[in-house]
Specification:
alpha/beta; Rossmann fold; Uridine Diphospho-n-acetylenolpyruvylglucosamine Reductase, domain 3; Vanillyl-alcohol Oxidase, Chain A, domain 3; 5 domains; 7-stranded mixed beta sheet; 7-stranded antiparallel beta sheet; 40 strands; about 30% helix; flavin adenine dinucleotide binding; PRTase_dom; oxidoreductase
Length: about 1100
């Protein structure tokens, strides 16, 4: 699939001469094709969200904002911002030279029959200049308009795909920067443009990219004629010669466009998009280069960095502590190695082996600190562990305070003068060991040294006959060789294409430390070696020489080591390469490679890597046997071509196929590309949340933005809504309506997203069966045809991996970086809140069950059968909410969101949460205690809590006969509520404190009481209730302070059963819930799963 720029060049080459400029009408016709269908997706998924995110700080800090927009078209993209932002715009000016667009824009600004105008709070009429934006302040207009004097200043100046005719572009940005309000620090110029734009020596304030954007155009002659002229930038006449060019252009579009089975009537072209923002400081590069020398001739190694057109490359000079050739390296007491910024792996190994020691580094001598700090996987990993495991100290510059920080065990002579030890240095050291690039600017790293080994290396290649043979040989490599090796040995495998076929290459590394003696494994113990290798290929190497031993450096494709190639890699961790689904993906990846040089490297793990606890370092991905490095390679001369883009897309596609079958992702390769977000969610295992909090504390402004992306640690609690129901009930439709409701919520600035949890299953099913993934995701009829087989596939997967539903749930949640409200469809779990909420204890989890008639469902499914849908209308659990989706249109769904979902973000709930005290190490060390009863000790606390209990109750208080409460926590909150709703109390106390007749049951102690009590005998008590307090058949609401383990509520429910209260007449509402303790699961396990449970607040911990 060609991109728009390639198509433009090709179309212009096909033309015999440059035609006439496009008329305003022709331009409009072409523009319409770019903002429909997939073109509108670019606006919906990238431009509008990024613009909202970019403008939010500025709009939040000012009472009113002035905006200048260049080339808005028929409608401004600003009209799609949330209403709360649009109301801040008090002054709006635009330049739109296209008369057709300007006329439509004028009508759109002044009258909006659908409701309020797009900018409802303007102080004066908007200004619309029907002339091009100029570098001069005085711009000539037409006869009717006269000249245009531009001497006003603005808070925001926006170019949204409107720089195509403005050259030189950097000069126009500089002119716009001169027009920014000087008093507003956040004032900015925002540019959206096709990828590949360069701005000279202007320094960007913010950037974002959308590399997967596509433009779709109908595959018919009329549409292609308009599209081709718009892309080429000029029109054709009705001459015979131009008619021939038109035909040629159509064929060019059809040859270069991508076809999709899901939309067979359209052609698609790659259209990567980029956002770049500038501030008044963007012209201040000379101030930086006056302090730090600029390097004009240096060749940036990373091809991605080169293509980003850096404004400057600088080389700091003050950090170095020595000026000799080995600057930045020191050996301390033969047990520590100190490496400073600028050192490479080869430098460290070369100097350390002189003293007989080494550091377990990666496999390439040219790699720097980025790899050590994010893992460091090499041939000593099985013997000594990862590079980051050997880190004992670091010196870093804080990007928050500019202080030099000395963290961990750093030798005194290597601590810079004036360096400080931060209070949280152990947390920062933990983060540095696996995610160090995210916490500060690292000046030096102190490693624990190990005995330098001698290596025995041999390799061999096995030609593979076909796909089946490839799978058998991979399984044999793992089972017969790799799995049987001792920790001092490792075996790497390579899958690659050469000489017309697939090959499996194997390199075996045997490491021997001084005193061990060289005792190589015999060929008899290496069953695969007999196929293509022998003892004669055995080589003895030291730590420097072994850098060249990897097959991709020395042997594969003639050796990649000295060739002028560029590469792109992503690495995933695999437990078992013998699994058929895994081997099938690996073999198919080589078969579908877009470049002959692409390969897969399976780097052997296990051993010492697994001996480190998952939470001992930030590197939380342990327990894997292979690091699968998906490597795309192409000639450096193809860096800016379709070949490079196709290879990168191939790497991401293979990574996406492997992701559901992997046990983690290597963070060292990941960056700000949005395609990395889904991979980054699995980069740190269970350590992700802790790491995100440390990142927020150490780098609150995200200065280190090009590191592995981490979710933003938001102060606001995430709301996760599980949208469930039978097939055809309208789950996806309702979820999308509710996303809009949250996004448009006035003054809330919420980020909402709807995702399907079944996408991972569909992806795996497509891999296993060859089904069309794109159609499974977007074509309802096609999906219905595969539904029963999809269900069987998922059930088979769960039989093999019982925790697969939990893995899918966590993947979806972790991928929702920066999202406040996550709506998940496609759930198959019974009682999902009870079974899943403990996995995300810091978030509030709700289930909204969509209910509708079978007739409506059948129509929506276009006649599809029920398959595995249960015909029973009775659920075995109580969903949080039920929505009757029995009307056309979205009004009912909107009202539902306003009445039942948006209140969870109310200010009063936030005030209540702030009244909860937090006490560390109480009632015993290691527990952070949430003092719920502290609410009663705050001014107006009890009244606020009772008011919220009353208003958030999902039932009807008029139908409630009794409120039951148990001492002590329930006695604090229930009486105030009972007084408000005029419902009598049923008191539950410890046995012996109520007069007879009473009924009692046994109660296990809560987790807090059990932690505070030394005697095991006292961990069970009995509670009682008067046997005559609650009449039979009464409707009862249980009010308590906390739901944690569920022990107290379980005892209360059993007690109410004993006095004759039916389970379906009982509801529970608590002030605070702690999902980490599985309280809902306990109640469901004991038969109370259908009891409705509500909680005002949700907390992690105790």
């Amino acid at each position: 699939m060609a991109n728009i720029e390639t198509l433009k060049r090709t179309l212009r080459q096909k033309a015999t001469a440059i035609g006439t400029p496009l008329s305003d009408e022709q331009y409009c016709a072409g523009f319409e094709l770019f903002v429909q269908g997939s073109g509108w997706v670019i606006y919906q998924d990238f431009i509008i969200p990024q613009l909202s995110k970019l403008l939010m700080p500025l709009f939040s800090s000012q009472a009113h904002v002035s905006v200048l927009e260049i080339g808005p078209g028929p409608k401004s993209v600003l009209g799609h911002l949330p209403g709360s932002l649009r109301r801040k715009i008090k002054r709006y000016t635009a330049f739109e030279p296209n008369i057709v667009f300007a006329t439509a824009m004028d009508e759109w600004l002044c009258s909006n029959p659908e409701g309020e105008p797009p900018f409802p709070c303007l102080d004066r009429c908007p200004k619309l200049h029907r002339v091009p934006f100029s570098l001069k302040g005085h711009m000539e207009g037409n006869a009717a308009d006269g000249p245009h004097e531009i001497d006003e200043k603005y808070d925001v100046i926006l170019f949204c795909h409107s720089m195509y005719g403005l050259n030189p572009k950097a000069k126009f940005i500089e002119r716009a920067l001169e027009m920014l309000v000087e008093q507003a620090e956040e004032a900015m110029v925002a540019v959206f443009h096709r990828d590949g734009l360069a701005f000279g020596r202007l320094v960007c304030h913010r950037t974002a990219s959308f590399p997967t954007a596509e433009i779709g155009v109908p595959n018919n002659d009329d549409a292609l004629d308009k599209f081709a002229s718009f892309v080429a930038g000029f029109g054709l006449q009705d001459t015979e010669q131009d008619e021939a060019t038109k035909i040629d252009w159509r064929e060019t579009c059809r040859d270069l466009g991508r076809r999709s089975e899901a939309q067979p009537s359209h052609l698609f072209f790659s259209a990567p998009d980029r956002m770049v923002a500038f501030t008044r400081h963007s012209t201040a590069l000379p101030e930086l280069t006056a302090e730090v020398p600029a390097v004009e001739t240096v060749q940036v190694k990373n091809w991605e960095a080169r293509l980003c057109h850096p404004a400057s490359v600088v080389r700091p000079t003050e950090i170095r502590q020595s000026k000799n050739e080995e600057a930045g390296l020191a050996l301390v007491r033969t047990s520590l190695v100190v490496a400073e910024a600028g050192c490479k792996a080869g430098d460290i190994v070369r100097k350390s082996i002189e003293a007989g020691v080494t550091v377990p580094l990666g496999a390439r001598p040219s790699t720097g600190a980025g790899l050590w700090l994010q893992g460091g996987i090499g041939h000593l990993a099985r013997l000594y562990g990862l590079t980051c495991d050997a880190i004992v100290g670091v010196v870093a510059v804080s990007v928050k305070t500019s202080q030099v920080l000395c963290i961990g065990d750093v030798p005194n002579e290597h601590c810079p003068i004036g360096a400080v030890r931060p209070e949280n240095q152990m947390d920062l050291l933990w983060a540095a060991r696996g995610a160090g690039t995210n916490i500060g600017i690292i000046i030096s790293v102190t490693f624990r040294a190990f005995a330098a080994p001698t290596y025995l290396v041999r390799d061999w290649v096995v030609p593979l006959r076909d796909d089946q043979d490839a799978q058998l040989q991979l399984a044999s490599f793992d089972e017969s060789l790799a799995c049987k090796l001792p920790a001092n040995c490792s075996a790497d495998a390579y899958l690659y294409w050469e000489d017309g076929g697939t090959h499996l290459g194997v390199t075996l590394f045997e490491c021997f430390t001084p005193g061990d003696g060289l005792k190589p494994l015999s060929s008899l113990s290496l069953p695969m070696a007999a196929v293509g290798g022998s003892d004669q290929s055995l080589k003895t190497m030291d730590g420097v020489e072994v850098f060249d031993a990897d097959m991709y450096v020395s042997r594969m494709h003639g050796g990649h080591g000295g060739s002028k190639t560029s590469s792109f890699k992503r690495c995933l961790f695999l437990k078992d390469i013998r699994e058929p689904n895994v081997t099938e993906i690996l073999v198919r990846a080589i078969r579908t490679r877009p470049s002959a040089l692409c390969y897969l490297h399976l780097l052997h793990g296990g051993g010492a890597v697994d001996s480190v606890a998952i939470d001992a370092t930030a590197f939380g991905c342990r327990g894997w046997q292979y690091a699968c490095i998906v490597t795309g390679v192409w000639s450096r001369s193809d860096d800016r071509t379709e070949t490079a883009r196709d290879v990168v897309q191939w790497v991401y596609r293979v990574a996406a196929d492997l992701l559901p079958l992997s046990c983690g992702v290597y963070s060292a390769d990941l960056g700000p590309d949005p395609r990395d977000m889904i991979l980054a969610a699995k980069a740190f295992g269970p350590n992700l949340r802790r790491l995100a909090c440390l990142k927020q504390a150490a780098d609150p402004a995200n200065v280190l933005a090009y590191t592995c992306p981490l979710p933003k640690a938001s102060a606001a609690q995430k709301l996760i809504i599980l949208v469930t129901g039978k097939c055809g009930a309208g789950k996806d439709y309702c979820a999308n309506v509710w996303v809009s409701a949250f996004t448009n919520a006035t003054q809330r600035h919420l980020v909402a997203r709807a995702v399907s949890i079944s996408e991972a299953t569909k992806r795996g099913y497509a891999v296993a069966t060859g089904a069309d993934l794109e159609r499974l995701l977007s074509d309802r009829v096609y999906k219905e045809q595969h539904r029963s087989k999809l269900t069987e596939f998922f059930q088979d997967q769960v039989r093999q991996r019982p925790r697969l539903p939990e893995e899918h749930f966590l993947d979806v949640v972790h991928n929702a970086v920066g999202v406040d409200v996550l709506l998940i469809t496609g759930m198959r779990d019974e009682a999902p809140v009870a079974t899943l909420s403990h996995l995300v204890p810091a978030s509030r989890v709700l289930e909204v069950y969509i209910r509708t008639s079978d007739e409506i469902r059948k129509v929506r499914r276009q006649g599809g059968g029920d398959n595995n849908d249960s015909h029973s209308t009775v659920l075995d659990h109580s969903p949080s909410l039920v929505f009757e989706n029995d009307q056309t249109g979205d009004e009912k769904a909107k009202r539902f969101a306003e009445n039942y979902l948006l209140p969870f973000f109310g200010d009063e709930l936030q005030r209540l949460a702030e009244m909860v005290g937090r006490v560390s190490d109480f009632p015993c060390p290691g527990i952070e205690f949430h003092h719920i009863l502290n609410i009663a000790q705050q001014p107006n606390g009890l009244a606020l809590c009772a008011s919220l209990l009353q208003s958030h109750f999902r039932g009807d208080w008029n139908n409630v006969d009794m409120i039951a409460c148990c001492e002590a926590g329930g006695f604090v909150f229930a009486p105030v509520l009972a007084s408000r709703v005029d419902v009598p109390l049923a008191l539950i106390r410890e046995e012996g404190k109520l007069p007879p007749p009473t009924v009692s049951v046994s109660r296990s102690a809560s987790h807090i009481s059990a932690s505070a009590t030394a005697s095991k005998l006292s961990k069970r008590t009995r509670i009682e209730i008067s046997s005559e307090t609650i009449p039979r058949g009464a409707s009862v609401v249980i009010v308590d302070d906390v739901l944690a383990t569920g022990n107290t509520l379980l005892a209360i429910l059993r007690l109410l059963e004993k006095v004759g209260v039916c389970t379906d007449r009982i509801r529970i509402i608590v002030v605070a819930e702690f999902p980490d303790h599985h309280g809902r699961g306990l109640l469901r396990k004991h038969g109370f799963g259908r009891v409705d449970i509500q909680s005002l607040l949700v907390f992690d911990g105790a």
